[in-house]
């Protein structure tokens, strides 16, 4: 009995101590949360109620953030704030607001927030690549070098157009080998688009049946899915969780294996590099690296070689291949539009001559269809986060330096004040009363300002040549036993169509 009383007393004492400790920790964390929270700046944008610790994160569906932003846009207007734990976020909506920020005040919004979830891939203060690099002299140097080198290897020149045309021919042969049977166009299109940038960056293209390349494309898709959802957002704002052994490798397994693939390509280059025989972008970067400490201080180091080439691979393949997948989905869903495109191709180009960029100016309807695919497909709905480089203002709202800024490109491409039928596939958005091609200023699928996509020129060329070449050779139809494909997209950084089967009937 005495033992039972003693144990009871001991448990009661422990419970009291735990309760006191719990109260202390709760008070401490609440005080910490209060100290960490943003100041109440005057003229700061409105937003949903922010909870302790998590801020407004429970208000956002990170699997479909553009849908959540659409709801906030209706409630709070063109500029509203969110709070990811203790990180201040401002979301810009509508064409005029985004234009004011990215065009009229481009340097104010030229910075990027730091992404701790990429550290395990080699990102750090001296190696950030181009896409997510901080705004500053190293980013400027690497971007200038990249654009200059790509131009030397044919960007914007006939030599690159010939390469795209040649790849379009390989793609047509691969599609023809399906013999009109139902198939998933996704990997053939991905392979074709990737080959264009791979040839320029790594001097290597991959056959359509290459199993290693297929595996890499699967890994790349997996890595995009890994970056979507609540958990990556939480890890970015609470990076201490990434210090738990094994967490980055477990959560971002696809990212790591994808970068391992990039490492293999680079290592092969380093073994065969010859300064007297420059083959591609990677060789030029290696040549810069050999210039010593001064070059290293300008950002030319091994880690940046990995990250810059990976950035080019991603930027030069994912958005373009996704856009083409949307294009053929819309042709399935709108056969009358497909017929009009083919009629224009037959009239301007004929059925045998390969399409060229010179043909584009004489093909207003086809050009309008391609642009409407980009607008309606809404490929990068929320863009990549920016960060304010200095204190600034937008639409009368104050946004302090260091604030994460999201430009809601979806709200621009579907702005009801600009587009006649914003939620429908309607190529007439890009045609005037005389049927001539026009491009409204609100067409910003590549974003704008200092952080606009550096591969825009290549993407435009690929979209026109790949699309018109396939439409010249095939009529695309929905297999008889297949349900109508979903028209909504699957968000994983990019907004991609759900997988669908297609029949390519030779014309």
Automatic annotation (TrEMBL):
<dbReference type="InterPro" id="IPR008069">
    <property type="entry name" value="Cyt_P450_E_grp-I_CYP2D-like"/>
</dbReference>
<keyword id="KW-0479">Metal-binding</keyword>
<keyword id="KW-0560">Oxidoreductase</keyword>
<keyword id="KW-0349">Heme</keyword>
<protein>
    <recommendedName>
        <fullName>Cytochrome P450</fullName>
    </recommendedName>
</protein>
<dbReference type="InterPro" id="IPR036396">
    <property type="entry name" value="Cyt_P450_sf"/>
</dbReference>
<dbReference type="GO" id="GO:0005506">
    <property type="term" value="F:iron ion binding"/>
</dbReference>
<dbReference type="InterPro" id="IPR017972">
    <property type="entry name" value="Cyt_P450_CS"/>
</dbReference>
<keyword id="KW-0812">Transmembrane</keyword>
<dbReference type="GO" id="GO:0020037">
    <property type="term" value="F:heme binding"/>
</dbReference>
<dbReference type="Pfam" id="PF00067">
    <property type="entry name" value="p450"/>
</dbReference>
<dbReference type="GO" id="GO:0016020">
    <property type="term" value="C:membrane"/>
</dbReference>
<keyword id="KW-0408">Iron</keyword>
<dbReference type="GO" id="GO:0005737">
    <property type="term" value="C:cytoplasm"/>
</dbReference>
<dbReference type="GO" id="GO:0019369">
    <property type="term" value="P:arachidonate metabolic process"/>
</dbReference>
<dbReference type="GO" id="GO:0006805">
    <property type="term" value="P:xenobiotic metabolic process"/>
</dbReference>
<feature type="transmembrane region" description="Helical">
    <location>
        <begin position="15"/>
        <end position="35"/>
    </location>
</feature>
<feature type="binding site" description="axial binding residue">
    <location>
        <position position="453"/>
    </location>
    <ligand>
        <name>heme</name>
    </ligand>
</feature>
<comment type="similarity">
    <text>Belongs to the cytochrome P450 family.</text>
</comment>
<dbReference type="InterPro" id="IPR001128">
    <property type="entry name" value="Cyt_P450"/>
</dbReference>
<keyword id="KW-0503">Monooxygenase</keyword>
<dbReference type="InterPro" id="IPR002401">
    <property type="entry name" value="Cyt_P450_E_grp-I"/>
</dbReference>
<dbReference type="InterPro" id="IPR050182">
    <property type="entry name" value="Cytochrome_P450_fam2"/>
</dbReference>
<keyword id="KW-1133">Transmembrane helix</keyword>
<dbReference type="GO" id="GO:0016712">
    <property type="term" value="F:oxidoreductase activity, acting on paired donors, with incorporation or reduction of molecular oxygen, reduced flavin or flavoprotein as one donor, and incorporation of one atom of oxygen"/>
</dbReference>
<keyword id="KW-0472">Membrane</keyword>
């Amino acid at each position: 009995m005495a033992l039972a009383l003693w144990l009871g007393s001991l448990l009661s004492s422990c419970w009291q101590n735990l309760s006191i400790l719990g109260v202390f920790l709760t008070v401490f964390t609440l005080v910490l949360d209060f100290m960490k929270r943003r100041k109440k700046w005057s003229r700061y944008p409105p937003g949903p109620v922010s909870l302790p610790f998590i801020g407004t994160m429970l208000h956002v569906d990170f699997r479909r953030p553009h849908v959540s932003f659409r709801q906030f846009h209706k409630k709070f207007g063109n500029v509203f704030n969110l709070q990811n734990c203790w990180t201040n976020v401002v979301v810009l909506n509508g064409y005029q607001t985004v234009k004011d920020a990215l065009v009229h005040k481009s340097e104010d919004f030229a910075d990027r927030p730091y992404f701790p979830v990429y550290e395990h891939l080699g990102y750090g203060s001296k190696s950030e690549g181009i896409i997510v690099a901080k705004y500053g002299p190293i980013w400027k140097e690497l971007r200038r070098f990249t654009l200059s080198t790509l131009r030397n290897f044919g960007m914007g020149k006939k030599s690159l157009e010939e390469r795209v045309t040649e790849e379009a021919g390989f793609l047509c042969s691969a599609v023809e080998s399906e013999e009109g049977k139902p198939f998933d166009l996704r990997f053939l299109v991905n392979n074709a688009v990737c080959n264009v940038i791979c040839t320029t960056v790594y001097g290597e293209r991959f056959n359509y049946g290459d199993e290693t390349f297929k595996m890499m494309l699967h890994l790349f898709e997996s890595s995009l899915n890994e970056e979507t959802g609540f958990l990556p957002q939480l890890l970015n704002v609470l990076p201490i969780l990434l210090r738990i052994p094994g967490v980055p490798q477990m959560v971002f397994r696809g990212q790591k294996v994808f970068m391992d693939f990039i490492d293999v390509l680079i290592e092969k280059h380093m073994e065969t590099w010859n300064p007297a025989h420059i083959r591609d972008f990677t060789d030029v970067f290696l040549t810069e690296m050999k210039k010593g400490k001064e070059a290293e201080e300008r950002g030319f180091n091994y880690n940046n070689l990995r990250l810059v080439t990976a950035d080019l691979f991603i930027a030069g393949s994912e958005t373009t291949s996704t856009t083409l997948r949307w294009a053929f989905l819309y042709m399935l869903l709108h056969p009358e539009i497909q017929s009009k495109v083919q009629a224009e191709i037959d009239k301007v180009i004929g059925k045998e001559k390969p399409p060229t960029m010179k043909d584009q100016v004489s093909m207003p309807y086809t050009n309008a269809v391609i642009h409407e695919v980009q607008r309606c497909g809404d490929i990068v709905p929320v863009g990549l986060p920016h960060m304010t480089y200095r204190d600034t203002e937008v639409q009368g709202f104050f946004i302090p330096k260091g604030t994460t800024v999201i430009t809601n490109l979806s709200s621009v491409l579907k702005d009801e004040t600009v587009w006649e039928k914003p939620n429908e596939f309607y190529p007439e958005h890009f045609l005037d009363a005389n049927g001539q091609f026009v491009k409204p200023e609100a067409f910003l699928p590549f974003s704008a300002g200092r952080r606009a996509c550096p591969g825009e020129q290549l993407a435009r060329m690929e979209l026109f040549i790949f699309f018109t070449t396939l439409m010249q050779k095939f009529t695309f139809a929905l297999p008889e036993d297949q349900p109508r494909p979903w028209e909504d997209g699957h968000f994983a950084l990019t907004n991609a169509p759900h997988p669908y089967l297609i029949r390519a009937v030779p014309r």
